[in-house]
Specification:
241 residues, alpha/beta, 9-stranded mixed β-sheet, 22% strand
Amino acid sequence: MISVCLACYNGESYIKKQIDSILPQLNPTDELLISDDGSSDGTLEILKHYNDKRITIYHNRFKNHIKNFEFLLNKVEGDFIFLSDQDDIWVNNKVEIMLENLKNFDLVLSDCTLINGEDEVIVESLFGDKIPTAGFAKNFYKNIYTGCCMAFNKKIKNLSLPFPEKINSHDMWIGMVSELRGNVKVLDDKLILFRRHGKNFSASVSDDTFLSKKSPYSMLDILKHRIYMGSKLIKVLFKHD
């Protein structure tokens, strides 16, 4: 069984395209869990038009995308979990490829193509010419984990929850937990069209990348976050899965 967790907030412009790219890839027993974080636009009206038993809609007011995803992860019933932003578009063989790799790995991370608000390609590959590799130390220093490009099993979900209160990247947290307690596969397949339009609900891909020139966080902020996350990861080493 697959569980897709989609966190949304004021996503009327793109959420239908995303849902329509997900549902054809799910089986009748799979689930698409959507948590709306207090939208004031037409998002909820769009969601109401779906008459699909696989969809469950939750209404929240966290005003925080990390807590919104944590809420959804606590609701999933599937063996394999996919995270989804409201703005993207899944390539039509995303689930098939990810599931094949999840037979042997606890977490799978794919490449993606970046598009703008008009579906025009901005960057062909997020990874570029060099496919990044797994490894705790290198990714603790410079994070490659992007939630919308990840899928993982129930073991990783259980080990990752609850999220530490002060993390600023649930993507990185789940990735680091997987590095510590599981095995990770990085794919060069570009399995989503990752939309960047300036008003994205979740943080940008560079927001918690160590030493990134695009990061809104200062060097000191990033170092503090790494120290905090490291202290929480020590506890994961001794946690039952």
